[in-house]
Design goal:
The chain is an alpha+beta fold. It is built from 8 helices and 5 strands. A 5-stranded antiparallel β-sheet has the order 2-1-3-5-4, covered by helices on one side. Helix 1 packs across helix 8, helix 2 crosses helix 3 and helix 4 crosses helix 5.
Length: about 180
């Protein structure tokens, strides 16, 4: 029996179709949007805000990645307080964290340098956080974040770099998609 690399029939060979430029741009945009668990309008606003600073910004892809990485839900995920970005978004929405001592329940809240994120004291008795306290001791956080597993808090101490991120999409192509 001979295995051919295409489907049977007259039209089987046509299936290997190349993506158009628009299709490639759309796929890259969707990959990045899904990776950070954002809706279309949220993602579009981030890209438009970065593109508006085009003249003053040195590195547009890095600026976009910083905006996405410094979202409250993503920082909670990076600190190891959640197993996924979706879980982090839910934890933030349910008012489980304090930023500099104030309750924040907006997943899109931008974390600044030196901001401290801590689990709310009233939530520390929750079984999720009691189990997390043991597992977070072995967690290795990114270089721009420090974690104190005993107090269940973390602090943003530096800036993220592109080498550290390794984005899932080509950021330049995403800008081309929105530049239409």
């Amino acid at each position: 029996m001979v295995r051919r690399p295409f489907a049977p029939g007259k039209k089987g060979k046509r299936r290997t179709k190349q993506l158009s430029e628009y299709g490639r741009e759309l796929r890259e945009k969707q990959n990045l949007k899904i990776w950070y668990n954002l809706r279309e309008q949220q993602f579009k606003n981030y890209v438009k805000a970065v593109l508006a600073k085009k003249g003053s910004a040195d590195n547009l892809p890095l600026d976009l990645m910083k905006k996405l990485e410094y979202r409250m839900d993503n920082v909670v995920f990076r600190m190891g307080f959640a197993t996924s970005r979706i879980a982090a978004r839910q934890l933030v929405s349910h008012n489980n964290f304090l930023v500099n001592g104030k309750a924040v329940n907006l997943p899109s809240y931008q974390i600044g340098k030196g901001d401290t994120i801590a689990v709310a004291p009233r939530k520390m008795k929750n079984t999720y956080f009691t189990k997390l306290q043991q597992t977070i001791k072995n967690y290795k956080a990114p270089a721009w974040v420090t974690i104190d597993p005993e107090k269940m808090e973390g602090k943003k101490v530096g800036d993220v770099t592109m080498e550290e991120l390794q984005p899932v999409a080509e950021i330049g192509i995403v800008f081309e998609f929105y530049a239409r």
